Amino acid sequence: MPPMPAANRAQEPSTWQKLKMGAMMGGGVGLTIGFIFGSYSILRNGSGPRGLLATLSQYMLSSAATFSFFLAIGSVIRNDTLLPPHIEAARLQLLPPLVRSKAEGAMLVRARWDAERARSTTA
């Protein structure tokens, strides 16, 4: 099957779009969890001096803010790759896994540090 022309290919969402999507999903999950736990807490301990609606909304909003923050960051971290997903998948299937000893890893790190030092002294 020939490759599809570039105009018909679906474009992946940008990092900003993934951040917003993660924040919105986290907000929805947080509102739901805040409603469940807030309702349980109000039924068990009472609503307190602020009243039922204020207490429940505080639970819901704090839970939504926390979940949306962490899901937004998680979606950006998840998106942080150098290769497109289809090339990364091909690389993982075709190349053998890289397993090195601690000594080999330390030698590679030292070589990279030396290269960075040489680059920074010339610049």
Automatic annotation (TrEMBL):
SMART domains: Romo1. The keyword Transmembrane helix applies. It is found in: Membrane. This is Reactive mitochondrial oxygen species modulator 1-domain-containing protein. GO terms for biological process: protein import into mitochondrial matrix; protein insertion into mitochondrial inner membrane. The chain crosses the membrane at residues 21-43, 55-77. The keyword Membrane applies. Belongs to the MGR2 family. One of its GO terms (cellular component) is TIM23 mitochondrial import inner membrane translocase complex. Keywords: Membrane, Transmembrane, Transmembrane helix. InterPro entries: Romo1/Mgr2 (IPR018450). It comes from the Eukaryota. It comes from Suillus discolor.
